């Protein structure tokens, strides 16, 4: 999984990580098998409460000290996503703008819009099977918009 690889790379650089898990979908065992140092990971489960996920992410971002903060909004109902105030995205962008922290927002649809520095789309290419055993997924990652250049 792409997210696990990003977290693993950051944890090998001795970064502290945070995952705000809105739907209780994060699997620490899979993350550990990918190389994530779970001793460096703060995992917050919000049991489907999107408002709690946003408050937790806000507190973490403003506290500082994390290399990567993940706000996982995959499988959140559309009605809940539509209630997210645009001001949250601007607040989050300002919180990380001049820091080494990377905020990664995962979702089933584009959420952050113009507040994102980079938007990536992950497309499943094919499932990998060896006989009856599932071995993984091939996927393609493509930018949704051009990177903004500093300067």
Secondary-structure map:
Elements: H1 2-12, E1 17-21, H2 28-34, E2 41-45, H3 50-63, E3 68-72, H4 78-81, H5 86-96, E4 102-106, E5 120-130, E6 133-143
Helix pairs in contact: 1-2, 3-5
Beta strand count: 6
In spatial order, strands of the major sheet run 2-1-3-4
SSE pattern: HEHEHEHHEEE
Determine the fraction of residues in helical runs and give it as a percent range: 25-40%
Question: What can you tell me about this protein's structure?
Answer:
This protein is an alpha/beta fold. It has one domain: P-loop containing nucleotide triphosphate hydrolases (Rossmann fold). Helices cover 31% and strands 28% of the residues. It contains five helices and six strands; from the N terminus they run αβαβαβααβββ. The protein has helices spanning 2-12, 28-34, 50-63, 78-81, 86-96; strands at residues 17-21, 41-45, 68-72, 102-106, 120-130, 133-143. It has a four-stranded parallel sheet with strand order 2-1-3-4, with helices on both faces. A hairpin with a 2-residue loop joins strand 5 (120-130) and strand 6. Helix 3 (50-63) runs parallel beside helix 5. The protein is globular. It starts with a helix and ends in an 8-residue tail after the last strand. The model has no long low-confidence stretch (mean pLDDT 87).
């Amino acid at each position: 999984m792409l997210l696990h690889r990003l977290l693993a790379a950051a944890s090998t650089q001795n970064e502290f990580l945070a995952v705000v898990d809105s739907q209780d979908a994060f699997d620490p065992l899979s993350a550990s098998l990918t190389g994530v140092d779970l001793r460096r990971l703060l995992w917050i489960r919000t049991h489907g409460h999107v408002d709690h996920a946003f408050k937790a992410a806000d507190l973490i971002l403003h506290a500082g000290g994390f290399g990567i903060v993940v706000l996982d909004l995959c499988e959140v109902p559309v009605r809940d996503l539509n209630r997210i105030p645009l001001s949250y995205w601007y607040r989050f962008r300002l919180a990380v703008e001049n820091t080494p922290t990377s905020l990664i927002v995962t979702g089933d649809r584009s959420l952050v819009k113009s507040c994102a520095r980079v938007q990536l789309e992950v497309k499943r290419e094919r499932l990998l099977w060896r006989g009856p055993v599932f071995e993984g997924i091939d996927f393609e990652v493509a930018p949704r918009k051009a990177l903004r250049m500093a300067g």
